[in-house]
Each structure stands twice: as structure tokens, then as C-alpha cells.
Amino acid sequence: MFSSLFPLVVVALLGYVALRSHYVSAQTIGDLSKITFSLLFPLFLFINIAQADLSGIVSYSVFLTFYAVVISTFIITTLLAARLFKMQSAGGAVFALGSTYSNTIIVGLPVLISVLSPSVAALVFLIISFHSAVLFGATSIFSSFATGNSFQLTRFCKGLLKNPLLIGIYSGLMVNMLGIDVPGFIASTLHLITQGALALALFILGANLYQYRLAGNYQQIISATIIKLIVLPLAVLLVARLGFQLSDEITLILVVLTACPTGVNAYIVACQQNSGQSLVAGTVVLSTLMSVVTIPLWIYVLQTHLFS
């Protein structure tokens, strides 16, 4: 397990050191981010999903375990934020987003490929296909209560359709479900172009940790981090084991996906809602640092069947 996760940590650490030592500039990281997440990663997601064998690899119980727990945790966390931290609807929704939105693609996917095998990618893509849409939508709906503005579904959907990562996921799913064969020369070209997408994403993640700061209400940041790294994956584990008796491999996948640190996109949503920016930025940093310890612990717990 250590040998599988060590390269991922090293690549992220290189990104952090490169920016901190001014070996690369913030502008360079910004340009790399634009290329990686607007071009390379969408193409990576598209070709891998389009060519994945999705027949019989997922059932309603897998989706229900993942999304029912994530949505329930989001709602409960929003309500708790109002009671414990006296947050209004917008602040509580952003707090809940920081506590439940996982960095599934940049962290979860390479971790699962390293620990299990590349074949799990197809299932991971399917599970997370609605992850951003569901949580960003829930945040917008709850935030609209505070501003008095109605939730505009059309505007929200247009925003999602402009997200390059979601475009890659959904276009790949469409090609796969329609049974369209991607020509070999196109597929090989896309695989070559996107070969370094995961490594670049991890490098950028490490660099972003230097740019974000642990600032603001530390009690809220620590609370959101605990919910994200411990409470949420524990709830998924219990539902997967006790509720649906899912297989060991499926349970491991679901737990790791929910045990991932808070995704950077949550900070973008916080900026759009103009609420909780420092809270989410701090949660991204702290949860990412702590996940270096907690994700291996969750994998150890599951592989040694401590919850069986």
C-alpha cells in the first residue's frame, strides 16, 4: 500500500516545492492548470470512458450508497452549521460543500488505480459522473434561500455544460452507451496526448496547496475536515456493509472516493456564492494534508477486514 501511494505524494510534493522555491511561478501553474483541466483531463476522461466496458459493473445499490450518504451528510451538515456556527443558508451550504465535495478525479482515481488496478477506472467514472452536478446544485439551492433569489435551473445547467471535466465525462458516456467505436488512430492519439494528465493534476494540486492558506475560523475548518475525512467515509462504509452487503472491492472504492480531501472546485463555488471562501480554502489545504494519513488508514481498515 505504501509503495502504491508514495509516488502520488511525491508528485504533489514536487508541485508544492516547485512553487514555494519559485522554481516555477504562479503564472506558470495557472497556465498548466488551464491546459490540464480544460484540455488534457477532459480528453483523458472522454477516451477512457468511451472505451470502458460498462456492462454489468454497477447496480442501483452502488449509486444509492454513494449519493444517499453524500446528500444526507450535506443536508445534515448544513443544518448543523446553522445551529453550531450560526451560519445563514449560504454560509451553511458552502460549509456543507466543503465537508462533502471530494477530490475524486485528482486524488481518488490515481489512488484506486494504484491500490487496485486500472480496470476500476470505468466504475469510478460512472460513480462520480453526477458528483459535481449534485453537490453544486444543492449548494446553489440552499444559498438561494439566504439571498431570496429563486434557483435558476436553466442557468445552473448552462454553467455545468461549460465545465470541461463534465463535458469529457458525459460525452464519453454518450459515445459508450451509443456503442460508437472510436477509430484506432484517434484513440491512440488521445491516449498519447493525455498520458501525463494524472501526474500533471497531482503536481498542480501540490502547487495549489502553497497558494491557499489556513486562515479564518479554525474551528470550522477542523470540523469540516473531520466530517470530510472521517464521518462521511464511515457512513458510506456502514451503509455499504450493513445496508447493501456490497463486495469488498466496491466498498473500498466507495470509501476511498468519499475519504478524498475537499476538491479545489469547492473554492470556486464559494467564490461564486460570495460566502465562506477562507473556510473552504482552509478545508482544502487541511483535508489534503491530513488525507495523506487518513486514506491509507481507511485502506488498511478495509483490506484487513476490521469492519467485517
UniProtKB/TrEMBL annotation:
Any single Pfam family the record assigns to this protein: Mem_trans
Q: How does it sit in the membrane?
A: Multi-pass membrane protein
Q: Where in the cell is it found?
A: Cell membrane
Q: Which InterPro entries match?
A: Mem_transp_PIN-like, Na+/solute_symporter_sf
Bilayer-spanning residue ranges: 6-23, 35-51, 57-82, 94-116, 122-145, 165-186, 192-210, 222-244, 250-270, 279-301
UniProt keywords (A-Z) are: Cell membrane, Membrane, Transmembrane, Transmembrane helix, Transport
Q: What is its main location?
A: membrane
The protein's superkingdom reads Bacteria
Family indicated by similarity:
Belongs to the auxin efflux carrier (TC 2.A.69) family.
The name on file for this protein is AEC family transporter
Q: Which organism is it from?
A: Pseudoalteromonas spongiae
